[in-house]
Amino acid sequence: MKITSRVGSLSEIETPLLVIPWCQESGVEEEVAEPLPENLGDLDAALGGTLGRALTAGDFRAKKRQSLLLYRMGTQGPQRVLLIGVGPRAALVAERLREAGGQAAGRAREVAVAELCVAAPDAAGGAREAREAGEAGGAGGDGSLTLEAAVRALVEGLVLGAWRFDEFRSSPESPDSPALEKVEILMADRAGQGVVSAAVQVGEVLGRAQNFARELAVRPGNVATPAYLAEQAQALGKDLDLEVTVLTPHAMREEGMGALLAVAAGSDEEPRFIVMEYKGGGKEAPLVLVGKGVTFDSGGLSLKPPAGMESMKYDMSGAAAVIGAMKAIAELGPKVNVVGLVPSVENLPSAHSMRPGDIIRAHSGTTIEVLNTDAEGRLILADALSYAARYEPKAMVDAATLTGAAVIALGHHAIVLMGTEPDLLEQLQEAGERSGERVWQLPLWEEYREQLKSDIADIKNTGGRPAGTITAGMFLREFVGSIPWAHLDIAGTAWANEAGPYQPKGPTGVGVRLFTEWVIGRAS
């Protein structure tokens, strides 16, 4: 897909599909007809007055996710006009525009067009204050959405909404529907053109990186093995400004990564420990991103129930988020150093598997009593977090599909956040709001540590069912030392059971935008 920006008139633009994100002017939930803005009079005329009549009749009230498709009456101007509601102007946020971009890509597929034009929010009257609100960040000083954030969200939604995955199909799922190849962001004038062009670039980079993470996650366990993840990281290293190192089992044994190797022992697939380094900040200490990379999780000897086990190919979604974020970071080029760490294994039952009751020694020297072999993600993360200390990082953040309890706590709408430093937690909360990948904090009170006490080792790998998400975070905290650290449990957000405006059923690629937003924020 090629995405560009241009200046033009809504009524004169030649395109098979013109998309207009539309704000509710009334700002109320009552059934109030929306007025026809003065700047859309010419477009209404090109449509034979159908736009004005649809508004007067109340057929389109610009409610969130509401849409209306109209056709031109003459021979000039856009062939089709798609109105997409984004809700009240006063409450406009980037996520509504991200959804609008996804809806636009989906409707383009339905009407079988390979190109479309989207009115920038200021061109459509969707965010008139955007230009004055400033060029950086997600909101202006008064809380209004900036032009940069609005356009970037639209582009992200378009790229994410256009994603398809037909790699394993004998023929495409929708052979009569062409892929979206060309998108133009239409501006009313040249004011703000630099802001729009920059926003298009960032939105496209982030959308593509998230799609890359989706593709890593959606591939089955017999394809996306630990070695495969390492190969993908190495390929990115060659294409981008990334230094990639891959540790094999021999190197892991020399490092003393006993927890990671214990998890991997039951599988014939060898584990890999992937190190990706982006060096854009000179001699400054880096930020570290860590992603759980269990490419298939059967639970080991603590075997999971068969129903739904196929979804355990997504247990490497944290790894996908880190690899995707490193891709985006390298392409955007912020002035900061970033290290991405991915411990990757399969967790399978065999005669060689670790057993409940085993005691293993982690990279840090801590001994761990294994009560449940299905609590394996925290074991491989323990070694990765300990390994990260050699970089003396300013801060580190890990992402993992760690606990089913996270789904019970927050459902599928937010990422669980825990950590040791209030400033870091606040940064991640703000990055979550800007990126649309929201987080919600749970406590790490010392009382929860009592549940992890072992009678014969330094710590147990599970504290039982009560507060299962929190005790998993407490376990990880044992291995971070004094480094500012935060943990993201993405178990509820890593895959979607129902399709959304820019999210099909399946892997979400969650964490890519959040990680990248946080890193860019730290760089600035």
List the keywords.
524 residues; alpha/beta; Leucine Aminopeptidase, subunit E, domain 1; Aminopeptidase; 2 domains; nine-stranded mixed β-sheet; 15 helices; 20 strands; elongated
Would you mind describing this structure in some detail?
By secondary structure, this protein is an alpha/beta fold. The chain folds into 2 domains: 2-187, Leucine Aminopeptidase, subunit E, domain 1; 214-523, Zn peptidases (Aminopeptidase, 3-Layer(aba) Sandwich). It has 15 helices and 20 strands. The chain has helices spanning 41-46, 50-56, 94-110, 130-133, 147-161, 193-218, 226-239, 249-255, 258-264, 317-332, 377-388, 405-410, 422-435, 468-477, 512-523, and strands at 2-7, 18-24, 67-71, 80-88, 115-119, 182-187, 243-247, 272-279, 287-291, 293-297, 337-347, 359-361, 367-369, 395-400, 415-419, 439-441, 459-460, 485-489, 495-496, 506-507. Strand 3 and strand 4 (80-88) form a beta hairpin. The radius of gyration is 24 Å and the shape is elongated.
